């Protein structure tokens, strides 16, 4: 019998097996290491080796002796450290959010069935997908908007503006009104910068803020919450009081202080707001982890002989994930609005074209060139709305219990 | 007698109760207070009792999901047999002293099934992975082998191998309990602790699962510790049964003997609660009066004396048992200041025809007019004092004459027949040694 079917539970020779540790790297982690390591190395290289005025990839080509090949395939970018961080978080998202959805098709189908009942959320998802794709690949096809004072205040295509406001009309002039052209599909602002290009590059910034802050907030919040819940006693007390301090910290004032002392770019904005934005998440994770750890399946795993790390990593964190994802989608709009407000007040990062900055650049001309404010304003408005809808729908889809308790089904 | 697979000795689990900002311990809830029993290889021992009597805590303490406060759990399975005690009196097979490595080894030998099928599986993990996780934890790295083993096992418990990738919410309660069995079995243990495994199931599903447990037990020579509050389930599956009340075992013995000839009044009460499928049979239902006392402050002497229908009368007292129970209840209620004299007065006035407060109280507590004049006048006086709002005096008056030996002394163990032991003062004089010790 044993030779015919060796894979029966009562015929395992445990003394032979039990010596090994049972640790193995998951596919997801392997892929992350494979793709993440070059990105991290590039980031370090960019920070320590490449000079301030050098383009990263050009320098890399020179150092590797492959300058000509790099130029031939167009590898001449100069990514900022924020771009590199963004790529890193994108890989995290790919391997730990999207790939698991593919790996667990049954669960994905179940979530999708729940999710798609919420029509506004599906539209929101499409809209955010558009912003995401535009933000990630747009900058490769559409160059940064450049100042061109001659082409200031060009109206959008199908629109028109009184000739007196335009120094040189790029389109046709009819009855004293300048009409827009396809060269500037959404018009230009006072500096002659293409609004469309600025909106696309703004998508990149938006996605960078969304992804990087989310990663930082999730990493700190989940770690802090689970450790606090599992440590208990004094450690828990101290950690949660520290969280209270973080929650009551005047982040905006602190950011202004840094701004006046050191000057602050978008990177600093993301860092400061993420570093003080995880308090709610940590609290949330802690309470959720406490309730999950009382469930019988955690007892059942403990009685299997699994260590605390395995239980937390395999059972506690995945079971808090649904609420964390929901909560994160609901705090992203806060960051986006904060960035837009700072940019509008003129204390944002002038080196990156954000929607807030574009809105700010159009406020003096709002009476005759409303598109400069309206286009980025509308996009910002719908993006924030979409995040909120998405968060609500995810709460229902990922927490079927919560819905049935609320009497939804 | 052969060495038992598991032997529990004087196991205790107390939960400290802390107060104040210094977290000083002010007391303890004695969930399990000194229980002892043995389980032989291939045997099923049932633990039965009301909810809150500590039977689940006993289970989790035995498998060391919670650290027991005191006592020994000696496990002699899987090549550990034949060990003798160390010089310092500790036992090398004492689970409560196992270190990390030994404990992990022990996890392969003893597994557990939980009560609630809906919460005993991770909702975000396919059930196959949940079962296979046990194998990973114990070092099986071969993914395909894990899957083959789990699929084979799922078929054995009456599911299909293709259920591997399905999620807990896709199964019914009975199916989940089958998966729970698979999870408990996958490490090939010698003992399974089942904590109310069928309590959450429908009657027909219950029978199926019990049948499955029995079949698997016979096939793989398992021992079982089966915890339930349901006497009929116990009768169906257990070889021996231990009856627990308030953290203590009050009676233990072969299931047949205990069911046919219960010795402890509490066991009698539990057995009388089993419905008999015969409309003409009129077995007397024993109704337990009073509430379950709190384990933080258990009653003195025999813990069951506050609710016992056969509570002993002191020498020289001989009244009917129902009134005696009522007298003790009245005494305890007055002492705890639980008698609402205003309400009783209203009830007495409202009844038709109008009765005195004394009559009303007597009928509420079931105290007939007593032949014993000393007791009867004490009751009358106590009620008069109570009506005059002197609760303390009333309590004292009754306490002077109403008392029972059950609250004074802890009952010793009485052996009725081979392996049938109970703890009740009623049988104190059946036991030659205890009589000798008392005198």
Question: Could you please describe the fold and organization of this structure?
Answer:
The complex is a heterodimer of chains A (409) and B (439). By secondary structure, chain A is an all-alpha fold. Chain A folds into two domains: 104-145 and 194-409, Orthogonal Bundle (MetI-like fold); 153-193, no CATH class. Chain A is built from 17 helices and three strands. In chain A, strands 1-3-2 form a three-stranded antiparallel β-sheet, with no helix packed on it. In chain A, β2 and β3 form a beta hairpin. Chain B has 439 residues and is of the alpha/beta class. Among the domains of chain B are: 6-125 and 183-245, Rossmann fold (3-Layer(aba) Sandwich), CATH 3.40.50.300; 321-403, no CATH class. Chain B has helices at 55-62, 100-109, 127-137, 143-156, 173-185, 203-220, 231-237, 255-260, 265-272, 321-335, 341-350, 357-365, 373-387, 391-401, 432-438; strands spanning 6-19, 24-39, 44-48, 70-75, 110-113, 191-195, 223-228, 240-245, 248-254, 413-417, 420-423. Chain B has an eight-stranded mixed β-sheet, with helices on both faces. In chain B, strands 2-1-4 form a three-stranded antiparallel β-sheet. Chain A binds chain B through residues 5, 7-10, 12, 14, 17-22, 24, 104, 106-107, 110, 295-297, 299-306, 310, 314-315, 318-319, 321, 400, and chain B through 60, 63, 65, 103-105, 107-108, 111-112, 114-116, 119-126, 130, 133-134, 136-141, 145, 148-149, 152-153, 165-167, 169, 180, 183, 185-188, 220.
Give a concise summary.
With 409 residues, chain A is an all-alpha fold. Chain A has 17 helices and 3 strands.
What attributes does this structure have?
heterodimer; A: 409 residues; mainly alpha; MetI-like fold; 2 domains; 3-stranded antiparallel beta sheet; 17 helices; 3 strands; disordered N terminus; disordered C terminus; B: 439 residues; alpha/beta; Rossmann fold; 15 helices; 11 strands; elongated
């Amino acid at each position: 019998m044993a030779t015919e079917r060796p894979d029966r539970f009562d015929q395992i020779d445990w003394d032979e097996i039990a010596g090994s540790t049972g640790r193995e790297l998951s596919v997801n982690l392997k892929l992350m290491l494979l793709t993440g390591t070059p990105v991290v190395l590039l980031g370090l290289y960019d920070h320590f080796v490449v000079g301030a005025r050098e383009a990263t990839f050009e320098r890399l080509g020179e150092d590797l002796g492959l300058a000509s090949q790099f130029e031939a395939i167009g590898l001449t970018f100069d990514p900022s450290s924020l771009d590199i961080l963004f790529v890193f978080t994108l890989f995290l998202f790919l391997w730990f959010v999207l790939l698991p959805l593919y790996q667990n098709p049954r669960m994905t189908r179940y979530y999708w069935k729940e999710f798609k009942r919420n029509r506004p959320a599906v539209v929101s998802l499409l809209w955010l997908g558009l912003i995401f794709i535009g933000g990630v690949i747009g900058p490769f096809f559409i160059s940064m908007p450049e100042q061109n004072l001659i082409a200031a205040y060009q109206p959008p295509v199908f629109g028109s503006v009184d000739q007196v406001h335009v120094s040189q009309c790029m389109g046709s002039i009819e009855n004293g009104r300048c009409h827009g052209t396809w060269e500037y599909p959404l018009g230009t602002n006072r500096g002659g910068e293409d609004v469309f290009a600025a909106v696309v590059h703004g998508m990149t910034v938006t996605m960078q803020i969304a992804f990087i802050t989310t990663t930082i907030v999730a990493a700190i919040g989940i770690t802090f919450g689970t450790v606090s819940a599992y440590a208990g006693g004094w450690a828990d007390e101290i950690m949660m009081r520290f969280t209270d301090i973080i929650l009551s910290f005047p982040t905006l004032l602190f950011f202004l202080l840094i701004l006046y002392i050191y000057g602050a770019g978008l990177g600093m904005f993301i860092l400061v707001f993420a570093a003080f934005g995880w308090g709610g998440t940590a609290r949330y994770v802690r309470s959720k982890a406490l309730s999950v750890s009382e469930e019988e399946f955690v007892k059942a795993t403990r009685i299997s002989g699994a260590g605390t790390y395995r239980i937390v990593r395999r059972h506690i964190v995945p079971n808090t994930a649904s609420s964390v994802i929901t909560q994160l989608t609901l705090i992203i709009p806060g960051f986006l609005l904060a960035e837009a407000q700072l940019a509008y007040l003129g204390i944002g990062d002038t080196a990156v074209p954000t929607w807030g900055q574009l809105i700010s650049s159009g406020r003096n001309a709002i009476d005759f060139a409303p598109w400069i404010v309206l286009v980025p304003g509308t996009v910002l408005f719908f993006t924030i709305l979409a995040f909120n809808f998405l968060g609500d729908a995810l709460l229902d889809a990922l927490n079927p219990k919560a819905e049935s308790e609320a009497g939804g089904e | 007698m052969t060495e038992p697979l598991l032997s529990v000795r004087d196991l205790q689990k107390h939960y400290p109760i802390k107060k104040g900002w210094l977290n000083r311990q002010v007391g303890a809830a004695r969930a399990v207070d000194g229980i002892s029993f043995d389980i032989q290889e291939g045997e099923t021992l049932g633990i039965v009792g009301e909810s809150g009597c500590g039977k689940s805590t006993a289970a989790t303490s035995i498998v060391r999901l919670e650290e027991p406060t005191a006592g020994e759990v000696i496990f002699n399975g899987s090549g550990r047999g034949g060990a003798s005690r160390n010089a310092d009196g500790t036992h090398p097979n004492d689970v409560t002293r196992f270190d990390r490595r030994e404990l992990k080894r022990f996890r392969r030998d003893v597994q557990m099934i939980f009560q609630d099928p809906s919460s005993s599986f991770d909702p975000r993990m396919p059930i196959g992975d949940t079962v296979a996780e046990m194998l990973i934890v114990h070092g099986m790295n071969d993914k395909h082998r894990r899957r083959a083993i789990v699929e084979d096992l799922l078929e054995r418990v009456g599911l299909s191998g293709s259920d591997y990738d399905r999620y807990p919410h896709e199964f019914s309660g009975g199916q989940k309990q089958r998966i729970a069995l698979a999870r408990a079995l996958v490490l090939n243990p010698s003992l399974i602790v089942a904590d109310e495994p069928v309590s959450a199931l429908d009657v027909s599903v219950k029978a199926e699962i019990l049948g499955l447990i029995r079949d698997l037990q016979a096939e793989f020579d398992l021992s079982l510790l089966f915890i339930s509050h349901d006497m009929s389930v116990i009768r169906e599956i257990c070889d021996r049964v231990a009856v627990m009340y308030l953290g203590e075992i009050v009676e233990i013995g072969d299931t047949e003997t205990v069911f046919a000839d219960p010795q402890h009044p509490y066991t009698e009460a539990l057995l009388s609660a089993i419905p008999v499928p015969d409309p003409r049979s009129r077995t007397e239902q024993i109704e337990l009066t009073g509430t379950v006392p709190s384990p933080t402050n258990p009653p003195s002497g025999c813990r069951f004396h506050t609710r016992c229908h056969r509570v002993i009368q002191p020498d020289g007292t001989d009244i009917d048992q129902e009134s005696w129970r009522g007298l003790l209840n009245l005494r305890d209620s007055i002492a705890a200041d639980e008698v609402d004299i205003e309400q009783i007065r209203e009830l007495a006035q409202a009844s038709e025809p109008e009765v005195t407060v004394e009559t009303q109280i007597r009928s509420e507590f079931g105290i007939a007019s007593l032949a014993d004049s000393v007791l009867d006048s004490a009751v009358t006086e106590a009620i008069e004092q109570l009506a005059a709002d002197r609760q303390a005096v009333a309590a004292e008056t009754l306490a002077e004459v109403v008392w029972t030996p059950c609250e004074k002394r802890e009952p010793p163990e009485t052996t009725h027949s081979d392996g049938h032991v109970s703890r009740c003062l009623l049988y104190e004089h059946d036991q030659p040694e205890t009589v000798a010790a008392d005198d």
